[in-house]
Amino acid sequence: MLLVNAQPLGPQSGFSLQLRSFFSGWPSHKLAQIYSTTSEPDTNVCRNNYRLQQDQNSSSQSLWKKYRFKVCGYQISKELAEWIRNFRPDAVFSELEDTHISKLVVDISKLFKIPVIPHICDDWIQFQSESIKALWGNRIRKYCFYWTLRKAPIRLVTSDSMAVEYRRRYGYEFFPFSYCIDPATYEPTQDARIGQSLVRFIYAGRPQGSRWQTLKHLLKAADEIAQLKKIELVIATDKGDIHEENELNRPWIRVVNYIKTEQEFADLLHSADIGVIAEGYNPSWVTYSRYSFSAKIPVYMMSGCCILGLGPRHLSTMRYIIENDCGIVISSTDPGVIRQELDHLLDLPGKIKQYGSRGKEVALRNHNIHTVQPSFMNLITDALARENR
């Protein structure tokens, strides 16, 4: 299997963590990846790696070369073609999250006559930039998307709701797969926390954009709560991703470095009571993320945390919390409403524990790496076998 994505397998993002969870059990000699970012790949999972050159953004490049890259994207060089030929992949697997990556995926599929298996994580096909500069990119991305759907032996998405919607929208069968976890890495934490005076919230991710606006509503609401109750919000993020550091200068907030390994995430959650998921209300963001599924949800669930969801209730991520009764969702930007809902939850420590226990049960059923990973591998293997008949 040849993976072609912007991010390599690793801890850099929810996408890369999710990919690593899918392919960590794949035979290493049958796995290779092409990626475009400067992030370091996890060589424990994939030893055969090829990083696309990033010099198209160099100031030493001519304007013509920069323009050509924007229009044509990555080219299959002789070196890359030889590298692929030596590996002899049976298929290309991609999340198609980038215009240039999508085009490269199609080009590789055509040149080497191998199928593409897409795994769609966001509804970006409905989210197209309206700027004139992006018109050409939009056209390329749509072409690659529809071409891939037509040619794919199997089509994967990230959530049940996306599978249903895409089946209705495009007329093909889609299979949902999301982040899967080894239960041995995580242990229920609530028994260690209930009965103690401090309630610890955890938010892991980049506090940026529309999500950051949602988080700021939580901070305003929690200011009043912190005057009466002992709470702590731990934010795990890269320091360079914090644009309004003054907003985090509160005595009940602690900022730690973004987790680099799954074990670090487990250690961080060991003392957590409530895991926070924030989604934005910006219409463009809602369109983009309405069928997405946050990789943090299975992690919070497997650790036994109650989940606090902040954002529109109709988003797939929020619906999953509600339908599985593993936490609460607050769909308001009014700090007063958020404070009231949080106050009610914090007054019911038994309910927090109940939400955490139920989430653990759901995670073991739906996100257990020992059941999801074999299902994922068998589905792809069978699809490729039918393709080669």
Structure commentary:
By secondary structure, this protein is α/β, with parallel strands linked by helices. The protein folds into two domains: 199 residues, Rossmann fold; 184 residues, Glycogen Phosphorylase B (Rossmann fold, 3-Layer(aba) Sandwich), CATH 3.40.50.2000. It is built from 15 helices and 13 strands. The protein has a seven-stranded parallel sheet, with helices on one face. It has a six-stranded parallel sheet with strand order 10-9-8-11-12-13, with helices on both faces. About 2% of the residues have low confidence.
Task: Classify the fold: give the CATH topology of the largest domain.
Answer: Rossmann fold
**What is the CATH homologous superfamily assignment of the largest domain?**
Glycogen Phosphorylase B
| Number of DSSP strand runs | 13
Q: Which structural category fits the helices and strands? A: alpha/beta
As for the number of domains, it is 2
Largest sheet strand order: 3-2-1-4-5-6-7
> Averaging pLDDT over every residue, what do you get?
87
Beta-sheet strand percentage? 5-15%
Order of helices and strands: EHEEHHEHEHEHEHEHEEHEHHEHEHHH
The number of distinct helices, counting runs of at least 4 residues, comes to 15
Radius of gyration: 22 Å
Low-confidence stretches: 55-60
**CATH top level class name of the largest domain:** Alpha Beta
Task: Note the topology.
Layout: E1 2-4, H1 14-23, E2 32-35, E3 48-51, H2 63-72, H3 78-87, E4 92-94, H4 99-112, E5 116-120, H5 135-151, E6 156-157, H6 160-170, E7 175-176, H7 190-193, E8 199-204, H8 209-226, E9 231-236, E10 253-256, H9 262-269, E11 274-278, H10 283-289, H11 296-303, E12 306-310, H12 316-323, E13 327-330, H13 335-346, H14 349-366, H15 369-387
Parallel strand pairs: 1-2, 1-4, 2-3, 4-5, 5-6, 6-7, 8-9, 8-11, 9-10, 11-12, 12-13
Helix pairs in contact: 4-5, 8-13, 11-14
